[in-house]
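Re: weekly structure request thread

Next one in the queue (537 aa):
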Amino acid sequence: MRTLIVKDRKVSSVKIRTGESAPEKYAGAEMAKYLGKFGIPSGEDLLIDIRCDAAVPRDGYVVRPEEDGTLSIRGGGGRGAIYGVYGFLEHYAGTRFFMPGLEKLGEGDITVDEEYVFTPVFEQRRSDWQCGARDADWCVKNGVNNPAYAKLPEEMGGAFEYVDNMFCHTMQRLTGVPQSAQPCLSDPETLKKVISGVREILAQHPDAAIISVTQNDNVNSCKCPKCTATDEEEGSPSGTLLRFINAVADDVAKDYPNVVIDTFAYTYTRKAPRITRPRPNVCIRLCSIECCFSHPLSDTTCPMNAPFFRDLLEWNKICDRIYVWDYVTNFCHYIPPFPNFRTMRENMRFFAEHGVRGMYPEGNYSSVQSGEFGELRCYLLAKLMMNPYMSAGEYYGLMDEFLEAYYGAGWRYIRAFIDWSCSAVSNSHMGCYPRPFQMIPRKKYLAVEDAIESWWEKAEEMAGDRVEAVRRSRIQWRYIRLMLHPDPAGARQLKETIEKEQIQWREGCRNYDDIHYDLQHSFPEREFPNSPFPADE
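Done, posted below.
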């Protein structure tokens, strides 16, 4: 049993009072549930008053011991009161919501001696890691308000959603132009089609807040004389796109003044235009797909990141609503290590400091489980999206708490592997499509192979009831060892393990034969490391 102490007074029991909305009642029920787990009974000694408050910023909250002895939780918007309860549990009680089904209640007295005020920096916080984002309960507890898979019902405050699944690459749907091409944005008929399509969708969803009008997923921009002339005048094809988007936004604003038109700054449109400025109801979603993730995006000495740094600064000068589509996994190889844990915190802070209001760190969305550190990355990214200004000490403290809870008593050996791999990649450039030995060269692995093997052995020996989690994350090291020392029997065993665990090898490549072909033939112009699979299979 834990003791609740409010303003130096030990509390013997609590009474929870809430407003009448579904989110307020949900928040109250969650507070009662967790206080019950702490052994704090219901009664009349302390009143905890939980309500939505229009004076509190949306999704923000204030936890305050009042002069009359009441403990109040005030939240902004539908989710604020709920976030206030979970903020109370985390800040005062030491509760952690690591993964669905894996929580830590905390220990010792729960001391509330001063108010706690918090407002998330980012208005949109999206996650697509299936290990967490398919669970609505986990999403709400960790501040994810735009999960890729889970539906957040009204009682959980609803979700920050793009209307009618209009999330990305929507020109095909709006104009009929296939994903392999782009429509001409100088053609008045294209504008009519898009406005008509957007209006048709909004008429069916009158409460919509944001809709995506975004280029198809290719670099085949229109090269007609009009588009080319505008591109040259603006210094970037983003100018042609933005003139088009502004026209859509102006038309839509006549009847839907609260709807935001979202568009991309992606590949050929990433560079900001010289002349045109986004309308107030336009959101620019800047994408970091060309960048290096072993170095911070703010590192202007990194040749892959310096242009992105410049682009974000230029967009921030002209746009009040920037979202970022970031890339936090290896989209060609989900299983080998992707050592970006040292840059994730710095990148999220960089975004927050330069006007970014929404985040989507895209993960290994097509894999049910992770054979690497997907669960850890999912958790840390959720916490960073809520608090991008956390210190290095806070960040690594959260990491260590997760590792201990998720991997058991041998967690420090897994931390040693994470630290080593992040150091090993620090002198390499690591995009989001690298081959394993492009990130960490073969010779670096060979130099410490025995030590790494011993770390995983000790972690597994000490894991206790968390041994399956250790074994699943150890798949990344089994994969690398097979790359270092090809072995047909070991390759078959690895294949069986991966299929059993529902782990995907890489996007669009699910079976053993395809992986073998990919490893041998995908990059014929470059040296590719040895496949773990025998050439005759």
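Residues 411-521 form one domain. The chain has 19 helices and 17 strands.
Next request, please.
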